[in-house]
Amino acid sequence: MATWDDVAAIAATLPGAVEGRAPDDAPTYDVGRHPFTRLRWDERGREILQFWTMEPDTEEILAGRRDVFFRIDRFRVKATVLAWLDRLDEQELAEILAESHRARRGVRTG
């Protein structure tokens, strides 16, 4: 079960990552001028992780995991994904943050 403290510990190890704030004052971690992860909350205060991916088929890939990944907004090149933070383990969180960091700093994989 991950928390924003886990996000902070992992994000701090990524090149160029800095703590930031969204316009609504929610915490973010940024690379360059773009956030690569952001904390959101549901109406009961449950932590939600927002991140980005370069994988255009994210919705299809994550369809079987709607208990974790519950909203995916697809754009032409990237997708924004929302996930319940407490449903991620540390290894998956580290992978998600590394991928989002790559997507937001403009380095394509593959």
| Uncertain ranges | none
Helix content: 25-40%
The CATH first-level class comes to Alpha Beta
Task: Please tell me what the overall shape is.
Answer: globular
Structural class: alpha+beta
Number of helical stretches of at least 4 residues: 3
Please give a structural write-up.
The protein is an alpha+beta fold and 110 residues long. The protein has one domain (4-105): Aspartate Aminotransferase, domain 1. It contains 3 helices and 6 strands; from the N terminus they run αββββαββα. It has helices spanning 4-11, 58-61, 90-105, and strands at residues 17-21, 27-31, 34-41, 47-53, 69-74, 79-84. Strands 1-2-3-4-6-5 form a 6-stranded antiparallel sheet. Helix 1 crosses helix 3 (90-105). The longest helix has 16 residues, at 90-105. The relative contact order is 0.23. The mean pLDDT is 88.
List the helices and strands and how they pair.
Blueprint: H1 4-11, E1 17-21, E2 27-31, E3 34-41, E4 47-53, H2 58-61, E5 69-74, E6 79-84, H3 90-105
Antiparallel strand pairs: 1-2, 2-3, 3-4, 4-6, 5-6
How is this structure best summarized?
The chain is 25% helix and 34% strand.
Give the key terms.
single chain, 110 residues, alpha+beta, Aspartate Aminotransferase, domain 1, 6-stranded antiparallel sheet, 3 helices, 6 strands, 34% strand, globular
